[in-house]
Amino acid sequence: MSNDCKNCFDSCRGKYCASKVPIFQNLDCNELKEIVSKINHKVFKKGDVIFDEGSLGNSMFFVNQGKVKLYKYTKEGKEQILNILSEGDFFGELNLLSSSKHNFNVKALKDAKICVLSNEDMKKIIFDNPIIGIKLLENISDRLSNMGNLAQSLATNDADSRVAYLLYDLANKYGTKKNDSILVEIPISREDMANCVGVTRETLSRKLRKFEEEGLIEVLRVKEILIKNIEEIKELI
Predict the structure, then answer these.
(1) Nearest-angstrom CA–CA distance, 130 and 224
(2) Under a CB-based contact definition with an 8 Å cutoff, are residues 233 and 220 in contact?
(3) C-alpha to C-alpha distances, 147 to 91, 150, 168, 170, 233, nearest whole angstrom
(4) Following CA atoms 175, 167, 147, 24 in sequence, which dihedral angle do they give, to the nearest 10 degrees?
(5) More confident: 13 or 125
(6) pLDDT at 19
(7) Handedness of CA 211, 216, 220, 223 (dihedral sign)
(8) Are 9 and 15 in contact (CB under 8 A)?
(9) Structure pTM?
């Protein structure tokens, strides 16, 4: 990367989403500037709804700062979290080929800055840079695979397995190796953790205590868990 291009990325970093999104990382300076010129910037407070299920989906959204959750409601009216996204992640890609209704809700978990590209602008970017389309498909494939794993866990597993699945997923996304253990900084509340795997908050707390008594984990703080044996956790899934 040339010094000019590096300076462009450095100047955009922290201000523009495009410099943080993995699918845009191979763009040169001018291409990045063109994307930045098309982006609309929106700010949401913690708890703000970014869009509701059933609303028209005609844009892609990129998380510049903060965290958001994607979720649906079950027939019983209980919240089911589908995904937690943070800086550099994006959503709305399934509406890219044709404007249709969103099939999930999105809410800010903390104050968030979101960048928005219209579907038409995003299509042009992909047409001009086919590698972005390939990376986008790879991302969609990974998300669909994760959704499939979540659906299978919810449909077939008991509470122990569901909570083990949650811990394993959080360890992969937010874990840091610490000697022979994995330290996980939990980015969501206990209520949201429970909603990720379709159990009550009380059940989640009970299972965490059980795993702790069995020596599999250690709950250090409300949002900090040390997983002592990730392989045994995986076997419970």
Answers:
(1) 41
(2) no
(3) 14, 5, 15, 15, 20
(4) -10
(5) 125
(6) 64
(7) negative
(8) no
(9) 0.74
Contacts of 118 (CB under 8 A, 6+ apart): 38, 58, 59
Q: For the segment 75-108, what is each residue's pLDDT rounded down to a tens digit?
A: 888 899 999 999 889 999 888 877 789 999 999 9
In angstroms, rounded to a whole number, what is the distance separating the alpha carbons of residues 32 and 222?
40
Structural domains of the chain in order of their starting residue, each with its CATH number: 38-155 (2.60.120.10), 157-236 (1.10.10.10)
Mean local confidence (pLDDT), 140-156: 75
User: Are the C-beta atoms of residues 237 and 153 closer than 8 Å to each other?
Assistant: yes
Angle at 33 between CA 30 and CA 38, to 5 degrees: 130
Instruction: Give Cβ neighbours of residue 80 (< 8 Å, ≥ 6 apart).
Output: 71, 72, 73, 74, 195, 198
DSSP 198-226: T--HHHHHHHHHHHHHTTSEEEEETTEEE
In the numeric block, the tokens 């763009």 are attached to 27
Is the backbone of residue 55 left (phi > 0), alpha (psi -120 to 50) or beta? Answer: beta
User: What amino acid is encoded at 5 in this protein?
Assistant: C
Residue identified by tokens 């919240």 is: 79
